[in-house]
Amino acid sequence: MIIDIHGHYTTAPAPLGQWRDAQVAALTDPLRAPDPAGPAIGDDEIRESIETNQLRLMDERGVDVTVFSPRASFMAHHIGDFAASAAWARICNDLCHRVSELYPDRFVPGAMLPQSPGVDPATVVPEIERAVLELGAVTVNLNPDPSGGHWTAPPLTDRSWYPVWEKLVELDVPAMVHVSTSCNPAFHTTGAHYLNADTTAFMQLLAGDLFADFPELRLVIPHGGGAVPYHWGRFRGLAQALGRPEPEESLLRNVFFDTCVYHQPGIDLLLEVMPVENVLFASEMVGAVRGIDPRTGHHFDDTRRYVEKAGLTPEDLAAVEERNARRVYPRLDARLAAQGR
User: Fold this and answer.
1) What residue stretches are annotated with the Amidohydrolase-related domain (predicted)?
2) Residues 198, 221 contacting (CB under 8 angstroms)
3) Half-sphere exposure of 123 toward its Cβ, with a 13 Å CA cutoff?
4) Closest listed residue to residue 146, CA positions, set 88, 91, 94
């Protein structure tokens, strides 16, 4: 089985975006507020949006299951207040749950959180519980920078985050550390802000003692870990200079990386530097990079091609494409096992 742990509903039907536009407009003109029950989206609209996009590509590329969460750039936690984010998260999470109900063998839900700049992170705990226990989410996307590129939030090791980590450990659910849209013109959303955040989150973890307090917490850093594999020597050297243990000892029991890296040398480097047990297959399609590479004739985000040409043994390849995901996402494993897979 091939499990893609990083998919977003980037092709959601138009009424979802229209509802969000009305919600944002209502921040200054309450008369434009949308129906609090959410947009009217029929099952056939969902099927059309999925079958012509993600499901078609999964079939073409031989991907069996995708962990499917709301569109990352749509989270936009910097817009509005906590109440706005809470309503938006509920609607987006419900929609991904509906996808998983329509295609239970192909999509497994993940969830976004109702974060808001300057708001206590503990306020997201009820939505974590609802998403996991009621909607069947097997992971959550956690934004280390709700301000949208201005980095006003404390580091992930700060005690203000502890109620979130406690709930994730209690529910045995990992978090993917994933930012949203950048409202800072210095940082392009997908080309800079995403990769900056991946690198920043890892450095925050390296400089702190989070996993001493939460030894069972599991965090996935997407997009191949940003600069982490490429600059592994720098991080090892900084750990030494800070009096920290080797990153392999202090972090790699709890931190994992996906394969959303869109060229062969990048995947080769990731799999050479990182232990195989810390790498999980992912593509993030249909996502930030949707074009065809003129040098290969294949889509940039067809990451299975790169992984399977990286020279892994059959056992290691199976670990990257399936077994690691089932270990890091135990609720995903339980769902698949209940289906006889």
Assistant:
1) 3-330
2) yes
3) 16
4) 88
Residues 6+ apart with CB under 8 A from 323: none
Identify whether 286 is preceded by a cis peptide bond (ω within 30 of 0): yes
pTM: 0.96
Predicted confidence (pLDDT) per residue in 217-239, tens digit = 999 999 999 999 999 999 999 99
User: What are the residues whose beta carbons fall under 8 Å from the beta carbon of 254, sequence distance 6 or more?
Assistant: 211, 214, 215, 217, 218, 219
Q: What's CA 7's distance to the chain center, in Å?
A: 8
- The residues that are catalytic are 284
From residue 31, alpha-carbon distances to 14, 34, 288 in Å are 21, 9, 34
Specify the amino acid at residue 281. Answer: F
Residue 108 has what pLDDT? 98
> Token pair for residue 79?
């817009």
> Which residues in 82-120 are b (16+ Cβ under 10 Å) and which e?
bebbbbbbbbbbbbbbbbbeebeebbbbbbbbbbbbebe
Tokens of 279: 């790498």
Alpha helix (H) residue ranges in the chain:
14-26, 43-51, 54-61, 72-75, 82-102, 125-133, 162-171, 194-207, 210-213, 232-241, 247-250, 264-273, 303-308, 314-318, 324-328, 330-338
239-277 burial, b for 16+ CB within 10 Å, e for fewer?
Answer: beeeebeebeebbeebbbbbbbbbeeebbbbbbebbeeb
Length of the chain: 341
CB atoms within 10 A of CB 44: 10
Summarised one tens digit per residue, pLDDT across range 36-85 is 999 999 999 999 999 999 999 999 999 999 999 999 999 999 999 999 99
